[in-house]
What we know:
- The protein is flat, with a radius of gyration of 21 Å.
- The chain is 69% helix and 0% strand.
- The protein has 5 helices and no strands.
- The chain starts with 5 loop residues before the first helix and ends in a 13-residue tail after the last helix.
- The protein has helices at 6-29, 42-64, 74-94, 96-108, 116-137.
- By secondary structure, the protein is mainly alpha-helical.
- The chain has 2 domains: 6-64; 74-137, no CATH class.
Amino acid sequence: xERRDWTDFIGGSLLLVFGLWFLWHAQIHYSFGEMRRMGAxxxxxxxxxxxxxxxxxxxxxxxFRRGDKPGANLRPFLAILAGGxxxxxxxxxxxxxxxxxxxxVIVSLAEAELRWLRTLLLAVALSCIGVLIFTKGLGMPIPAxxxxxx
Length: 150
C-alpha cells in the first residue's frame, strides 16, 4: 500500500488541469457576455469551473488516503484507440454496420478473455440501434452498407 491513492490523485490532477485549460481557453477566445445576454464563452467557462471543481474534489481526499500504486496496461488503451480509428476509416467506404461491427470486435480485444458470442450479439444490437437512430430517426445520409466502389 502506498501512502497516497495515486489512481485518484492522477485522475483528479488531470481533471483539474483539463478544467483550468478549458476555463483559460474560454476566457481568452470567447466573450462571456452578461447575465441577461450570455455570450459564447459563458457555457465553456462554467464547464471549466465545474470540471476543475470535480478534479479538486477527487484530488484532495486522494492526497490523504492510502491506495495501491497504479500499473500501466497498454492493451485496453491500444484496443480502444484501434477501434476508434477503424470506425473512422471504415464509415465512409463500408457504411455504418461494418464500421460498428469492426469497432465492437476490435474494442472487445481490450479484455484478456474474449467472449465471441457476447461480442457478436453486442455488434448486431449496436448496428441495429445505430441504423435506427442515425439513418432512420435522424435522417443522416449514412448508408447501412456501402461497397467499395470508388
